[in-house]
Fold this protein.
Amino acid sequence: MSNLETIQAVYEAFGKGDIPAILGRLAPDVEWEQWEGRNTAQAAGVPWMAAGTGPGGAIAFFTAVGSLMEFKSFEVLNMLEGGNQVAVTVKLEVAINSTGKTFKEEEIHMWTFNDAGQISAMRHYSDTAKHIAAAGL
């Protein structure tokens, strides 16, 4: 399975709520939302943007998303593959349960693969100000 096919399967699983299928594609040392330098959403304490390592980091992300957000819409616009990475552009609208705030945005999800074909890193490139405001921080 190519990296692009793996990511297509990840988004299909996400759409079905099949998180175990996603976790099965992760490297044991996967880096989730790991940034060099300062990420403003992480510094503000946005729970679904927290950095994590290993499958536990991904589980924390999916737990936060599942319990704190309601997706009004989620649309994959495009997938671009190059080298050991796949970039996915998405358009979404999300309501935050704790604040009642809603925001719309377009994001890029950057997936990186190791030599074994496992997902070794994932980052969201997004408008962090929208996430911070919606979280009420």
Observations:
- The chain has a mean pLDDT of 96.
- The longest strand covers residues 69-82.
- The longest helix spans residues 54-68.
